[in-house]
Amino acid sequence: MTAVVVFLAATALLLYVIVGYPLLLARLRRHAGRPVLRDSSLPTVSVIVAVYNGASFLEAKLRSLLAVDYPKDCLEILVVSDGSTDRTGEIARQFPHVTLLEVPRGGKCAALNAAIPKARGEILLLTDVRQLVEPGSLRTLVRNFADPRVGAVSGHLKIRDPRSGGSAQIDAYWRFETWMRDSLSALDSMFGATGPFYALRRAVAVPIPPDILLDDMYLPLAAFRKGYRLIVDQEAVAWDIPTDLSTEFRRKVRTLAGNYQLWFHYPWLLTPANRMWLHFLSYKVGRLLLPWLLIAVAVSTCFLPSPWREAAGLPQLLVYGLAAVHPWLPRSLQRLSSPCRAFVVMMLAVVAALQILFVPARRLWKVTGATPASS
């Protein structure tokens, strides 16, 4: 009976997190969405690009920023070189309308802490060096700040040729994540921002602890607690380079470890003081529980009476088996095994993220292996 109870309880929670909550979210979005007030006003904007050894991307990035459709007298661009040892500083100096700020190596949060007080714009556009910005995207982001309830606006990150190579394995996952964030935004707020490309009211920016792994959650959530909305505008587009599953695994380990970190810095997220408490527990906490629920289901399955043991065990063996043999399957079958492998890798990332409890946060920062030629 113990095995049956554990199996049913873990399966019910799994189904709620994976299927039930998204269905609930879709229904709530349809009936309780909150529109955002927009207009064409043009406040001053400070673009901040925090970069460490980004010479291979920086010139293209700055050209895309200088080509945005926005009045030049309302726009400043700050490049913060976080102790770079390559040509990052040299490239930035070649652009007369770009301000270079060089700081000792201290990590992205330290670089942002150095740059934000020097920014003069009413709106901060925080963006990474690798992603190229569509010319009209800045206006699209800024129009949302006409609504006084909006504190931060994320753009839509698109992947160039997402069906190529290993990136095809995470394409479906990323599209689902994008839908979840868009749905939360329509209701009230997403829990953070799209890190490589988002805008924030200068007035709500706060200092970031230097060990924080997710500045793109820490900063926006400070505004969320003050009552502001954190939304996404799918029409504001930045383009990124496709990465493989191993790169996505390392990124996911860092972001999930950052979620654990935020529980200590923002414990109110886990209480009814969070006005989206149910959504946070169902989405963020639920995702971190998934691998442990899967383990509970697998172990309890072994102790179920026959034929229930076989009926519950075979689907699990099929999913894990397809994930394990994916690299050796013919391409025609990889369309079936690819989602299984991506799901299992994401679950392993949740477990690996627990190392944040035992190692310094800085060790979880890994330089992405992508290069401009990857596109």
CATH names the topology of the largest domain as: Spore Coat Polysaccharide Biosynthesis Protein SpsA, Chain A
What amount of the residues lies in strands? 5-15%
Total number of beta strands: 8
**CATH-derived architecture of the largest domain:** Alpha-Beta Complex
Percent helix among the residues? 40-55%
The separation of the N and C termini measures 54 Å
Spell the H/E element sequence: HEHEHEHEEHEHEHEHHHH
Concise synopsis of the structure shown:
With 375 residues, this protein is of the alpha/beta class.
Describe this structure in words.
This protein is of the alpha/beta class. It folds into two domains: 1-32 and 245-367, no CATH class; 45-243, Spore Coat Polysaccharide Biosynthesis Protein SpsA, Chain A (Alpha-Beta Complex). It is 48% helix and 15% strand. It is built from eleven helices and eight strands. An eight-stranded mixed β-sheet has the order 3-2-1-4-7-6-8-5. β2, α3 and β3 form a beta-alpha-beta unit. α1 (2-32) crosses α6 (168-187), α1 runs antiparallel to α9 (277-301) and α9 (277-301) packs across α11. The longest helix is centred in the N-terminal third of the chain and has 31 residues, at 2-32. The termini are far apart.
